[in-house]
Amino acid sequence: MKRFFQPLQKDGSFKKRSVDASSPDERKDGESKEHTADHKKEPLKFLSWNANSFLLRVKNDWPEFAKFVTDLDPDVIAIQEVRMPAAGSKKEPKIPGELKDDTSSSREEKQILMRALSSPPFSNFRVWWSLADMKYAGTALLVKKCFQPKMVSFSLDRTASKHEADGRVILAEFDSFYLLNTYSPNNGWKEEESSFQRRRKWDKRISECVLQLSDKPLIWCGDLNVSHEEIDVSHPEFFSTAKLNGYIPPNKEDCGQPGFTLAERKRFGAILKEGKLVDAYRLLHKEKDMERGFSWSGNPIGKYRGKRMRIDYFIVSEKLKDKIVACEMHGHGIELEGFYGSDHCPVSLELSKISDDCEKS
């Protein structure tokens, strides 16, 4: 990704550059222009990963993750929980599509990250960011340079210049499908604005977004922060009875571990049904797999040791289900092998060619 490097002046600041409107990852208006080249291929292999701080992964686990990406060779990489702040000084509006670089520490962190992304195999990708104001949440989308999205936007209502709060959404439109990368907010433990109410509003908006995208097949990936069925958690009884400091929500369906409350699971099921969507992993893996069947694992030390959940997904339109070649979780065991330093493991999806008939259906 050499285009991201800006020459350092003697004082360590970045030299200002003019923005090339044809480079979608450098545009500030939230959209990419349609590419004029006639590409014969389309992305068919996808990777999604909650990195639990992209910068920390670059500093501590990058060689192993880079080898994994080289071996898997995905066309698209969707990242959640980037945890890099958006550009903009304290008193100025933030620029969620750009990394912060107005202080010496933020410039250094940006350099570390962009050097990693400018080296193989990541140098083969373009990158889009949607970032929070601080080191919190945030998403990134890396797409091989030979695959040009028609448009990239950053909000559930597809407003061109708008980014979702905390950088939780990146939506890319390709010729034959939409790709939606989301970092869904955690349900929390209490009946309050930043907890249950926030998640209810999010689920409602996701449902509306899915229905609005019905003109093309949809691939929805990311950390969706919900385990749909009992088969999707290692210890259903533990998670269904979990409490925080003894608090019991007034509504029985809100009780339990965030991500495994009955209310969340019901809403998720309704989104799939109404949106005519399929859980790609569960379609292929019908049985519970205690070794490789979960994407999130609790801290190896403490009461959450060995407690695992499947909360990272590839959800696809029903019209794509016959195109699913593989959907796998790449971490295993309670010692978090294949997690590359995160508490989430990467999840991949591979499709066969999306036919013209599928595009027009």
The computed structural class is: alpha+beta
Q: Tell me the number of helical segments per DSSP (H or I, 4 or more residues long).
A: 8
Q: Summarize the helix and strand pattern as letters.
A: EHHEEEHEEEEEHEHHEHEEEEEH
End-to-end Cα distance: 37 Å
How do the strands of the widest beta sheet line up side by side? 5-6-2-1-16-15
Rough outline:
globular
The percentage of residues in β strands lies in: 15-25%
For the biggest sheet, the summary is: 6 strands, mixed
Radius of gyration: 20 Å
What integer is the average pLDDT? 89
- Overall number of strands: 16
- Low-confidence segments, given as residue ranges, are 1-40
Helix content estimate: 10-25%
Topology:
Layout: E1 45-50, H1 54-60, H2 62-72, E2 76-80, E3 86-87, E4 95-99, H3 104-117, E5 125-130, E6 139-144, E7 151-153, E8 169-173, E9 178-183, H4 196-212, E10 218-223, H5 236-240, H6 262-275, E11 277-279, H7 280-284, E12 296-297, E13 308-309, E14 312-317, E15 324-329, E16 347-351, H8 356-360
Parallel strand pairs: 1-2, 9-10
Antiparallel strand pairs: 1-16, 2-6, 3-4, 5-6, 7-8, 8-9, 10-14, 11-14, 12-13, 15-16
Output the keywords.
single chain, about 350 residues, alpha+beta, 6-stranded mixed beta sheet, 8 helices, globular, disordered N terminus
Question: What does this entry look like structurally?
Answer:
The protein has 361 residues and is of the alpha+beta class. It is built from eight helices and 16 strands. The protein has helices at residues 54-60, 62-72, 104-117, 196-212, 236-240, 262-275, 280-284, 356-360; strands spanning 45-50, 76-80, 86-87, 95-99, 125-130, 139-144, 151-153, 169-173, 178-183, 218-223, 277-279, 296-297, 308-309, 312-317, 324-329, 347-351. The strands form four sheets. The protein has a six-stranded mixed beta sheet with strand order 5-6-2-1-16-15. Strand 8 (169-173) and strand 9 form a beta hairpin. Helix 1 (54-60) crosses helix 3 and helix 4 packs parallel to helix 6. The chain is globular. It starts with 44 loop residues before the first strand and ends with a helix. Mean pLDDT is 89; it is low at 1-40.
